[in-house]
Amino acid sequence: MSTVLLLLITGLGLGALYFLVASGLSLIYGLMGVLNFAHGVFLTLAAFLGWEAGRRFSDGTWLGLGVSALVGIVVGALIAAATELLLIRRLYERHIEQALVTVGLSLAGVALFEGIWGTDPIYIHKPEWLSQTTTLLGAKIPNDRFLLILCAAVVLAAIVLFLRRTRYGLIIRAGVENRAMVTALGIDVRRSFTLVFAIGGAAAGLGGVLASVYYGYVSAHLGSVLLIFAFIVTVIGGLGSLTGAAVASVLVAVLQQFANFYLGGTGDLVVVIALAGVLLVRPRGLMGRKA
Known about the structure:
It holds the Pfam family BPD_transp_2. Keywords: Amino-acid transport, Cell membrane, Membrane, Transmembrane, Transmembrane helix, Transport. Its main location: membrane. By secondary structure, the protein is mainly α. It has one domain. It has helices spanning 2-32, 39-58, 62-86, 95-117, 143-165, 167-177, 179-184, 189-215, 222-237, 242-262, 267-281, and strands at 122-123, 133-136, 139-142, 217-218. The strands form 2 sheets. The chain has a two-stranded antiparallel sheet. It has a two-stranded antiparallel sheet with strand order 2-3. Strand 2 (133-136) and strand 3 form a beta hairpin. Helix 2 runs antiparallel to helix 3 (62-86), helix 2 (39-58) crosses helix 8 (189-215) and helix 5 (143-165) crosses helix 6. 47% of the residues are buried.
């Protein structure tokens, strides 16, 4: 029983990390129809700069982690907004060009990070409590999983409230449905779309900092690895469905944890098989809308 509980909660923690990355992908695609393959660059840059700021401010403490998270969020938002302004804005409704540009940015980003910080992982210091465990019904749960779950829940609630309860959220949803009509009312929809990118980048930035806590290191390939699972989560949950991304994140991570433990480390293979099964049975994903 304790083993099952351990796998469930650690799966929830990993799922929370997947959601922080996938939420930006799902939000940007759902509201703007852009598949952003450079999303991992936002995450990795935020993780590196967050780590640099945190270790200089107060390394290995909660204050240092808080500074890292704040820097990561700001960096992720700024680089995402700049990407939309300089690259994506000219390529709306041109999906092949979008894919080529964002894939190219992703490859260039990894090369740049390797040139600055090297190719080897850089191990970080984190608050002592996050390196410890909490015993729950006989299962020793790593404390950093609780932090991940809390942050993912806060991000999900914040995005939903923003889209449903704020003026800009209303403009964004209206602009997606009928951009010409909103523009005719004198509202600059382009600013709202830049804001969507910034929100997605901020979530990725926070995810990058928390990924460094989860894995214990930062590296140039951190975003690339997580981006693969983020895309799997986004497709399984349904392209454009934030709720679907949240549900799929938990399902994928828990399945991965159980398969790794009971099926000899085959978690990644099982996840890919699950992706294929969902695409065959329900191509639009678990909670995706019909085209």
